[in-house]
Design a protein that fits this description.
With 384 residues, the protein is α+β, with helices and mostly antiparallel strands. Helices cover 43% and strands 17% of the residues. The strands form four sheets. It has a four-stranded mixed beta sheet. The chain has a three-stranded antiparallel beta sheet with strand order 3-11-10.
Length: 384
């Protein structure tokens, strides 16, 4: 197996110089916490680093894109604990045999289509359909709904109509689904929320929309980028597929290594309720702090050779899904998708050839990071 994958870590020098990198975002000078142990500790300390901050957990903040607080990510315990219990059963559906079987059939279908073509654009013709169709299985809604999700493109807030507010397409869709569920209850995600209670009262519509908004926005481009990243690595490292094929136990290890290395969420914000010293930087009350998962997952003090993709890395204490109270609800679903993808590729594909690729770049004032692809053209060759 090749051990020479290029680094996607723009924080290496800053991390060695100090635990914090100051980054300007939307008029705020936000300290970005870089080192693994510090990021993990801050993620677990919700009293100092609060998530009770509507629109401000994402960086940049999302007032332009939505009208409601995302639940449960933008509340703290004990509210977070109670809200999380409402939707956890749906996210645990990723462990159900019927959902696993559907995801397996999904990748069989996508790989069959890729093999039938001379080449495939793997972002919009593979990764996006995979994410969209798999989401319908998780939410127990008709698979035909995936056509709508695919039509939104890479970014669920990216309404292309200049007369619309960004995010209107998603909000209108969610409102229609809740109206339908209230009129004709069923077994799916939307009906479950219309029937759910919080503190012995029914959820109101804003709370329902907050859960659904996060569900559709939070795991979209992250899953798409993860799938595309796996395909790109197999195409650029010819030893990777044979290496995993040698030992099926490496499939789970490989998927965790891809989550670590790719870190599709670069960072998330927290708000300090009172003036706080953050590793030597004073943050005023109601100021934001960044928890940089991407830097933490490449910390030399935590990982041996973090700039290399090692598909049998063990242990692998990455925090691509966060840590503590706000650990990602969608982690089981994302893991199912990546492990199934890798297993199906190992079983069916001899080689993936890279034709061309256009990386997506997060270009900020103090860092520039490749994260996913705007386009990725590949050729699949079947195992004989």
């Amino acid at each position: 197996m090749s051990d020479s994958a290029p680094t996607n870590d723009p924080f290496e020098e800053a991390r060695k110089d100090g635990p914090v990198l100051k980054c300007p975002f939307q008029g705020e000078d936000i300290p970005m916490i870089l080192r693994g142990k510090d990021v993990r500790a801050a993620a677990k300390d919700w009293e100092t680093y609060s998530s009770d901050a509507p629109f401000r957990v994402p960086i940049p903040s999302e007032e332009e894109f939505r009208r409601m607080r995302q639940l449960p990510i933008e509340v703290n315990p004990p509210e977070h604990t109670a809200y999380r219990k409402i939707v956890e059963p749906f996210f645990k559906r990723a462990k159900k045999p019927e959902v696993i079987a559907k995801v397996e059939a999904l990748f069989d279908d996508l790989i069959r289509q890729a093999l039938a073509s001379d080449s495939i654009e793997a972002v919009y013709d593979f990764s996006l359909p995979a994410q969209s169709r798999a989401l319908t299985y998780l939410l127990d809604v008709p698979e035909s709904e995936a056509d709508t999700y695919i039509g939104w493109g890479m970014h669920v807030f990216g309404d292309k109509n200049p007369e619309h507010r960004a995010g209107d397409a998603l909000e209108n869709y969610l409102s229609e689904q809740f109206d339908r569920a209230e009129a004709n209850p069923g077994d799916g995600f939307f009906s479950a929320l219309t029937n759910a209670t919080y503190n012995d009262r029914p959820l109101n519509r804003e709370e329902m929309m907050g859960f659904a908004n996060l569900t559709f926005a939070g795991g979209r481009d992250t899953v798409i980028h993860s799938i595309s990243g796996v395909l790109h690595h197999f195409a650029t490292d010819p030893g990777a597929l044979p290496f995993v094929r040698e030992d099926p136990k490496r499939i789970a290890l490989a998927s965790e290594e891809y989550f670590r290395y790719l870190s599709p969420i670069t960072h998330l914000g927290r708000v300090v309720p009172k003036e706080t010293d953050v590793h030597g930087h004073t943050v005023p009350a109601d100021g934001r702090v960044s928890l940089c998962w991407a830097s933490a997952n490449h910390d030399e003090e935590v990982f041996d050779g973090p700039s290399k993709i090692r598909l049998d890395r063990k242990p692998n204490p990455h925090i691509a899904f966060g840590a503590g109270t706000h650990f990602c609800l969608g982690a089981p679903h994302a893991r199912l998708i990546l492990r199934t993808l890798i297993r199906k590729l190992v079983e069916q594909i001899d080689q993936i050839t890279l034709i061309d690729a256009e990386p997506l770049i997060e270009d900020e004032a103090t860092f520039s990071r490749a994260n996913g692809f705007a386009s990725l053209n590949l050729r699949f060759t079947a195992l004989s």
